[in-house]
Structures are given as C-alpha cells and as structure tokens.
Specification:
The protein is α/β, with parallel strands linked by helices and 349 residues long. The protein has helices at 4-14, 41-51, 60-74, 86-98, 113-121, 142-149, 173-182, 194-197, 235-241, 252-263, 266-288, 309-314, 335-346, and strands spanning 28-29, 81-84, 104-109, 125-130, 132-134, 137-139, 154-158, 186-190, 211-216, 229-233, 292-293, 300-304, 318-319, 321-324, 327-331. The chain is 40% helix and 18% strand.
Length: 349
C-alpha cells in the first residue's frame, strides 16, 4: 500500500505541467529547433558500426576519449567535462544532485522551458526575471537579475536565449562575471547555440567555482535524436557529480557518434554557417515586407505578429511554435523549406 508521503508526492507530480512537445509526420518540421541536416557521414558510419555491438556496455576508456575531445573543443581540461544524455540530461544532473527542495532558482523569462520543468519537479522556488525588449532584440535586465540572484541557489541563463534568439548579455563577459560574483549559488550558462553565436564562457570555469556551462550536440551537430551533450565546470563539481553518474549514462552509439563529431567539428561549423546565412536572408525578406523579426544568433527566428501564424502555416503543411501571445518561433530549415514559409507569409499580407 502506498504511504501518505509517497501518495502526496505522486499527486504533486501529476499536477505539474507537462513539457509541451507536439510531433508531426509528413510535415515541414520547423517547431523544434532541429537541424535540417543529418549528422556527418563519418558520424553515421561509426554509429552503425557500434550498433552492431549493442550487446556491450559503453567502454569507460571511450568516455575518457570523449572528455578529452570535448575539453579540447571548449578550451578546458578533460577533468572539467561530464558527458550527459543531451543538454536536458545536464540540467537534470544539476537539479537532482546539487539542489534541495524549497531552494530558490532564478531564470530569465522567456527562456528554455525545461529549467522551469525540472525546478518544479524538484519543488524549487522559481523566480522569473523578464528580459527587456529593445527594438529588434532582447537583453537581460542585469540590475533586476543581480538583485534576484543574491539569495538564489541556482540561476539558469541560456545565452543565446531560446526563444528570442538574442545575445542576452551581448557576449559581454563582464555581465556574466557580475552575476557570478553576486551570488553564492550556482550559475548555469546554457550554450546550446554556441556554434551559431561563436562566444562562450567555458574558459571561466576554473576562475569561478560556481559556474557550470551546458553544451549539446542537438543543434549544429544535427544529433538531436541521439541525446548527447555535456557539462563543463570546475573539478570540485565534476568530481562530486561523477558519484551520481555512470560511464553508461550516454548510450554507446551516441557516445561514439559524438566522438567522431568532435574529431572533425568542421561539418557542424559549416552547417551552422549555412543555416545562419539562410536565417539572415529570411529575416531581411520578412522585414522588407513589414514583419517584425527580431535579431537572432541561433538556428531560429522570433516573429511578432497579431495574427495566428501557427495555424496559417500549419494549413500549408508547416509546423512552427507559438511561444506567447503574438510571438512565433520558426526554426531555420533548408533553403527550399524556408522559401515555402516565405511564400505563405508574404502572400498573407
């Protein structure tokens, strides 16, 4: 028989809002910030090879190889790296092991929804600090954020930001430093879109003992379905978190695919350049037609429009994401896919 404490916990979890994930078949998928490009051929070849050995657990030595390559890619030591099942896995690892029920968490709003989801599951006290909209971009309200993080146990910052696509600190390291030096809690900087934006704070992990950086292979590397990412932080934290992980947390095919991707990251960087060019051209055309499109340094754009653009595009076989009243996020697909979006939007005026 379920005891009262467990029953209350189950009731609490059932009452939480589920992550909003809607998938579609036979439609142009521009609603999940996926890459329009598959993994590189060398990655696919290696994954197929390893899949034939699916009866074996991942080799711990290959985990160490991943850490060496990821560390080299980020400009840190291998001891600063922990592989995780996607960027979401890094968030879960942090929330589940470094935070306690009732502690304060701070997030920008809007930001990646999983910060709120995992904070709610852990029963953290969540404080949202609104981003400031400025003409064609958004930025962090640094003063409000600094004030909010003073007594926070964790602060989540996605920079570039999802869903605005903005450099919320403008790549200004001094503002991140101010946050790090104001709070005694953890500061988690999510760099999921690093390959598009080109800036990073990974080099600060040995200077600040409360900084954790999250990376993923889901975006520029085109490996969203393989669920592989990693976190970068100081050795004090990685040594502790390894007690809460195993060498098997990332599947062998995913781990080996990520190793191949890191052995030659040029494929991902070239795709990021192509996607960024499509995004810039797309933004320019829509703005010339009178649409309010915000500046972006990611693989998506954010549009402000009073109409129901989600339903409009869906009626033409295109899925996008409505993120708030009058705000729509459109992932950047192939040239052909974006041209179809352009045709629908431009003919709707």
């Amino acid at each position: 028989m379920i005891n009262e404490e467990l029953d209350n916990r189950l009731k609490y979890l059932r009452g939480l809002q589920t992550y909003d994930f809607t998938d579609y078949n036979d439609i142009i998928r521009l609603h999940l910030n996926e890459s329009p490009f598959s993994p590189s051929e060398r990655v696919i070849k290696r994954i197929v090879e390893v899949a034939r050995e699916g009866n074996r657990y991942p080799n711990p030595e290959r985990v160490e190889m991943f850490k060496v390559l990821a560390g080299r890619y980020c400009g840190v030591k291998s001891e600063n790296v922990i592989p995780t099942p996607g960027g979401d896995g890094a968030i879960r690892l942090i929330v589940n092991n470094l935070l306690r029920r009732g502690e304060k968490a701070v997030v920008n709003f809007p930001s990646y929804s999983m910060y709120s989801v995992y904070s709610s599951v852990k029963e953290l006290r969540l404080t949202k600090v609104n981003l400031i909209e400025e003409n064609y971009t958004w930025r962090a309200d640094t003063d409000a954020l600094v004030n909010s993080v003073r007594d926070a146990k964790v602060t989540f910052i996605d920079d570039p930001n999802n869903p605005t696509g903005a450099k919320i600190f403008g790549g200004k390291e001094e503002e991140i430093r101010e946050i790090l030096e104001t709070t005694n809690g953890l500061v988690v900087v999510d760099e999921a879109y690093h390959e598009f934006a080109g800036y990073s704070v990974t080099r600060l992990v040995d200077k600040y003992d409360n900084l954790i950086v999250i990376r993923t292979f889901s975006k520029a590397f085109g490996m969203a379905g393989f669920r592989v990412g990693y976190l970068v932080t100081n050795e004090n934290i990685t040594n502790a978190l390894r007690k809460a992980t195993t060498p098997f947390d990332v599947s062998a095919p995913s781990l080996e695919g990520a190793i191949e991707a890191l052995l030659d990251p040029s494929y991902a960087l070239e795709n990021a350049t192509i996607i960024s060019k499509i995004r810039s051209n797309f933004t320019e055309k829509l703005r010339r037609a009178g649409f309010k499109v915000y500046d972006s340094v990611t693989n998506f754009i954010l549009i402000k429009d009073a109409r129901d653009l989600k339903s409009l595009l869906f009626s033409h076989g295109i899925a996008i994401r409505r993120v708030n009243d009058g705000l729509y996020r459109i992932s950047i697909g192939t040239n052909e896919q974006i041209e179809k979006v352009e045709d629908v939007l431009l003919n709707s005026i």
